[in-house]
Every structure is written in structure tokens, then in C-alpha cells.
């Protein structure tokens, strides 16, 4: 996503530069047209011809300026949107990194708990084995006690 955003930003910056160059060229053309207009107004004696030509040049220059201003505004909006998207992308990346870190911590905790459970299972098995051995020992001792008691009873009789 970052690479895509960076590429998109670069493309838009290039497009913005191209439009800025076009705007400068248009402004240069407008300046040149203004200069030509001045030259024509100086050289032309006919007031009507000069007025209509000046009017046409002004209209043409005004429309181009308005178009360029509109394009420039559109580019400024696009740049702002990209900046906002970039910030949102950064925020998302930061949140993702935080969640990834939290996920790693939880994975470590889970691993520790699993190890603890395994130890407790082993401990329970050991206790069961010990309990079984103790029960066998108890049964043997009870058997020995009964035998000894029976021997004692016989001896007493």
C-alpha cells in the first residue's frame, strides 16, 4: 500500500509539474499576446479594428487564465487529498504496526501459557504415577499387616 501510495503521489506530482509548466507557458503566451496587442494598438490607426482585436485577445487570455486557474485549483485539491490520504495511510500503517506488536506479545503469552500447561500436565502425570505407586505400596503394607496380625493372633492363641 505504501509503495502504491508513493507511486500515486509521484505520478500526481509529475502531473502537477506538467500542468504548472503548461500554466507558465500559457501565461507567457498571454504576456506575448498582450505585447502583440500593444504593438498592434501602436501601429494600427483604425480604432474600431484595434478595439475588436483587443477585445478578442482579452477574451481569449481571460478564458485561458480561468481555465488554468481551474486546473491549478483542481491540482491543489488533488495534492491535498493525497496528503490527507498519505496521513491516513501513515496512521493506518502505525495502527497496523501497533496491532502487529500487540499480536506478537499475545503470541508470546500464549506460548508461555502452553509451556506452563505442558509442565502442569507432566506434573499431573508424575503425581498420578506416584499416587498409583503409593496405592500399591499401601495395599502391600495392608497385606503385610494382615499377615502379621494373623501371625500374632496365632501366637497369642
Automatic annotation (TrEMBL):
<dbReference type="GO" id="GO:0008017">
    <property type="term" value="F:microtubule binding"/>
</dbReference>
<dbReference type="GO" id="GO:0031122">
    <property type="term" value="P:cytoplasmic microtubule organization"/>
</dbReference>
<protein>
    <submittedName>
        <fullName>Protein Daple</fullName>
    </submittedName>
</protein>
<dbReference type="GO" id="GO:0005813">
    <property type="term" value="C:centrosome"/>
</dbReference>
<keyword id="KW-0175">Coiled coil</keyword>
<dbReference type="GO" id="GO:0051959">
    <property type="term" value="F:dynein light intermediate chain binding"/>
</dbReference>
<dbReference type="GO" id="GO:0030705">
    <property type="term" value="P:cytoskeleton-dependent intracellular transport"/>
</dbReference>
<dbReference type="GO" id="GO:0005737">
    <property type="term" value="C:cytoplasm"/>
</dbReference>
<feature type="coiled-coil region">
    <location>
        <begin position="58"/>
        <end position="151"/>
    </location>
</feature>
Amino acid at each position: 500500500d505504501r509503495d502504491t501510495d508513493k507511486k500515486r503521489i509521484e505520478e500526481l506530482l509529475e502531473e502537477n509539474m506538467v500542468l504548472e509548466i503548461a500554466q507558465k507557458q500559457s501565461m507567457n503566451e498571454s504576456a506575448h499576446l498582450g505585447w502583440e496587442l500593444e504593438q498592434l494598438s501602436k501601429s494600427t490607426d483604425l480604432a474600431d479594428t484595434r478595439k475588436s482585436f483587443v477585445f478578442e485577445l482579452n477574451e481569449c487570455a481571460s478564458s485561458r487564465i480561468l481555465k488554468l486557474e481551474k486546473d491549478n485549483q483542481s491540482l491543489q485539491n488533488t495534492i491535498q487529498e493525497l496528503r490527507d490520504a498519505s496521513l491516513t495511510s501513515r496512521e493506518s500503517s502505525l495502527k497496523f504496526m501497533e496491532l502487529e506488536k500487540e499480536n506478537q506479545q499475545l503470541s508470546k503469552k500464549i506460548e508461555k501459557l502452553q509451556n506452563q500447561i505442558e509442565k502442569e500436565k507432566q506434573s499431573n502425570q508424575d503425581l498420578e504415577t506416584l499416587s498409583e505407586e503409593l496405592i500399591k505400596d499401601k495395599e502391600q503394607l495392608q497385606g503385610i499387616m494382615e499377615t502379621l496380625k494373623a501371625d500374632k493372633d496365632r501366637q497369642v492363641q
